[in-house]
Specification:
The chain has 741 residues and is α/β, with parallel strands linked by helices. It is 47% helix and 17% strand.
């Protein structure tokens, strides 16, 4: 019987070690390939998601751009340019780029007539020579891209229809830098934002909409967790192979218990984290033999916790930022964004359950003068006090909004007109009775209130609610006593100048540039039938016609251009004086507003006129409510002008406060009776006697007295009987342009 050959233990050990090592190496090779496959799958999926993100961003950006060009096509000023392109270059180069419709990534915008030709010849810049064509393409080709040597432009065209007749008026063409639009407005999770580039071309290439993605080069984001884990796995496999060579016999068994199982557990844990990125997932309640695996498990769990906490914190910060974006930083009340949101909500749901809606506008009169006189810090204090006073006076159900500058608004729902008026008067009385002395303001601060009201009887005016309240506010600002006004249908004509008058552009441009201003001079006669001086009256020429002063002052008051008006009037009078257009040894009077009187630059403004005081009488006319409202400060300003040699006239006496007790404190030389007092001299005896007594008291006090509105011989006779020292009116002389006289 042959006995089997007995091998040395070292051969069995070597065989076992070789077998174990071979199996172990093979196992590690498989593990490495599995990990590599997971990494490649992860990378491939990231690339797919990045491509989807880019596609969605491109589609959204095109949709937003189309929406914006449609909004611009509905813009009233765009239609005005098509109808009257005289100011097209000014509108195109200045007004357009300062408007809310212009975005910083826009490259070029042009208007085309209904024949698809540009309103004016298009001058291409060197940078984008062929951005907009000289003819609007057909409707199926009105949106495309241009790749200009790596610069991608989106080119869009939109028809413009008349808002009333819906007839085609023309087209609007727009090019915009497409890459900054995407980078500025979209956040990416899987796509590396900094890697997006446009494929460079040697010349200009037109790219169709479905080919745009082929022009964009990008990289997916790098995943530090995957890279970190992949590095750990590689290092680990290298280490275990080295140890396996030394301890092959025991490593096979030990590897399964101490290494393979922990790795599988971590991979499963990573898969769970990947599949549930917004959930906190605790690891399995197992302890690993190796501390490194335990730390890795804890690190992954901690990273998961920190990631979720970061997401929660980001969401909380987003909510905080959203809340803060609705609060005005200065007044700590709701701002214009919150106001617009609330108004949009009312418009959206009003048709479901119509209910009364009141809209209240508050505005501080002469706020610019307060800022100029006391400084912006005091002006800011006025804004804060106004906001807190309104908020405390309002019911809890009504919010107060600061919608810009010194303008505040309330939206009152489910109240009849009487209730809305009560709320407006509560706020008005609260701020009117507030004592601003503690912040250094010595004059009474005046406020105006405009109200519009919508119910089932006039619900079609819902979209006009803000405009109607603005008209009512404008009406209250023009009134000296009725400072809370409710919009009435009869007031609509008062808003035409503010909204649709074609003269607005000409008036505003003239007040800023001084062009087309034609000062007319009306003589003021003395008691001996001689011309003592001339009153200067502003006119603006437009299309060879003069714009009526009522229109000029409507625009000036609504847009707060009083100071600009006064500066242009003073410049024109200085020009007339220098040119000798005002008769020698007479003089001229200049009306100035409260804003100009209280401005810190008042003295430098009148300084150029001082050279003419030696041979001309120059009179500054102020309306009496300006003096009474700002008596102390106005007195200081006017006293300084009197010291220089200027005369001061109190204009329109009798149209406002008519408080005789103020005259002793007013630094004036001349009192001008409003034409209503002049004409009242011919009314009943009681009225006649009151005016006569007032006139005599004024002249006996040493003032010169001018009666305006002398239109008939009877007016002149009555004015002389009243003791007037000067006379003015159409009977004696109409306002005339000295250059055409």
């Amino acid at each position: 019987m042959i006995k089997p050959k007995i091998m040395h233990a070292k051969f069995y050990l070597m065989f076992f070690l070789i077998l174990t090592l071979g199996l172990y190496i093979g196992f590690n090779i498989k593990l490495y390939k599995d990990a590599e496959e997971i990494r490649q799958q992860t990378q491939q999926r990231t690339e797919e998601l990045a491509q989807i993100e880019l596609t969605n961003a491109i589609d959204a950006a095109i949709a937003i751009s189309r929406s914006k060009i449609k909004e611009m096509a509905l813009w009233e000023e765009v239609q005005q340019q098509l109808n009257e392109p005289s100011y097209y270059f000014f509108w195109h180069d200045e007004r357009l780029k300062e408007s809310q419709y212009w975005e910083k990534y826009y490259d070029q915008l042009e208007l085309y007539n209904k024949d698809r030709k540009p309103l004016h010849a298009i001058h291409h810049s060197d940078e984008h020579m062929n951005a907009l064509p000289n003819e609007v393409p057909s409707a199926d080709k009105n949106t495309f891209f241009l790749n200009q040597q790596g610069h991608l432009d989106l080119v869009m065209f939109e028809p413009i229809y008349n808002s009333t007749t819906q007839k085609l008026e023309g087209y609007i063409g727009l090019t915009l830098d497409f890459l900054p639009l995407i980078l500025q407005n979209y956040q990416f999770t899987y796509l590396d934002k900094s890697s997006i580039q446009i494929a460079k071309t040697h010349n200009i290439v037109t790219v169709e909409m479905d080919q745009i993605e082929s022009q964009m080069i990008f990289e997916p984001v790098k995943n530090p967790v995957n890279d970190y884990l992949w590095t750990l796995i590689q290092n680990f496999i290298n280490q275990v192979i080295i140890f396996g060579i030394l301890l092959a016999g025991l490593f096979t068994i030990f590897f399964k218990l101490s290494t393979l199982n922990p790795l599988n557990s971590l991979v499963n844990y990573l898969t769970q984290l990947k599949n549930n990125p917004s959930s906190i997932i605790p690891p399995e309640n197992k302890r690993f033999c190796f501390l490194e695996f335990e730390e890795l498990k804890n690190s992954l769990s901690g990273y998961n916790q920190q990631l979720i906490n970061a997401q929660v914190e980001i969401e909380a910060q987003r909510e905080t930022a959203l809340c803060q974006s609705r609060i005005d930083a200065l007044s700590n009340i709701l701002n214009r964004r919150a106001f617009d949101t609330r108004l949009d909500t009312i418009f959206l749901h009003y048709h479901e359950a119509q209910h009364p809606v009141g809209f209240i506008l508050f505005d501080c009169d002469f706020f610019k003068a307060i800022n100029d006189t006391y400084g912006h810090e005091i002006g800011d204090s006025v804004i804060r006090i106004t906001a807190s006073t309104f908020r405390n006076a309002l019911p809890e159900s009504v919010e107060i909004y600061r919608i810009g500058g010194d303008e505040f608004a309330c939206i009152v729902e489910h109240q009849d007109l009487a209730g809305v008026l009560d709320i407006a008067n509560l706020c008005f009385n609260a701020i009117r009775n507030y004592d601003f002395n503690h912040i250094g303001i010595r004059e009474k601060i005046a406020y105006s209130v405009g109200i519009s009201f919508i119910d089932s009887h006039n619900s079609e005016d819902l979209a006009l609610m803000h405009k109607q309240a603005d008209i009512a506010l404008y009406k209250s600002k023009r009134s000296l006593h009725q400072k809370v006004q409710v919009f009435q249908k009869d007031d609509e004509h008062a808003g035409k100048t503010l909204t649709s008058n074609e003269h607005i552009t000409a008036i505003v441009e003239s007040l800023h540039s001084g062009k087309n201003i034609r000062m007319h001079l009306q003589p003021v006669y003395g008691i001996h039938n001689q011309i003592d001086y001339f009153e200067s009256l502003i006119r603006i020429q437009f299309d060879n016609k003069l714009i009526h002063p009522v229109e000029i002052f409507d625009v000036v008051n609504h847009r707060h251009l009083e100071t600009e008006l006064d500066k242009q009037v003073i410049n024109q009078i200085l020009h007339y004086l220098d040119a000798g257009k005002i008769q020698a040894n007479t003089g001229v009077s200049i009306n100035i507003s409260a804003s100009t009187l209280l401005n810190e630059d008042l003295m430098p403004l009148f300084a150029p006129l001082e050279a003419h005081l030696t041979h001309q009488k120059i009179t500054i006319e102020i309306i009496e409510d300006t003096l009474i409202s700002h008596l102390e400060l106005a007195t200081q300003k006017l006293s300084a002008l009197r010291e220089k040699g200027f005369k001061i006239a109190l204009d329109d006496f009798g149209s406002g406060y008519s408080s005789i007790r103020y005259l002793a404190h007013m630094p004036v030389d001349i009192i001008k009776f409003d034409m209503s007092l002049t004409h009242a001299l011919l009314q009943d005896k009681k009225t006649h006697q009151i005016i006569m007594t007032t006139a005599q008291m004024i002249t006996h006090a040493g003032y010169q007295l001018v009666l305006e509105g002398i239109e008939t011989d009877a007016h002149l006779t009555a004015a002389k009987a009243a003791g007037a020292t000067h006379f003015q009116g159409y009977l004696l002389g109409r306002p005339q342009d000295p250059y055409s006289a």
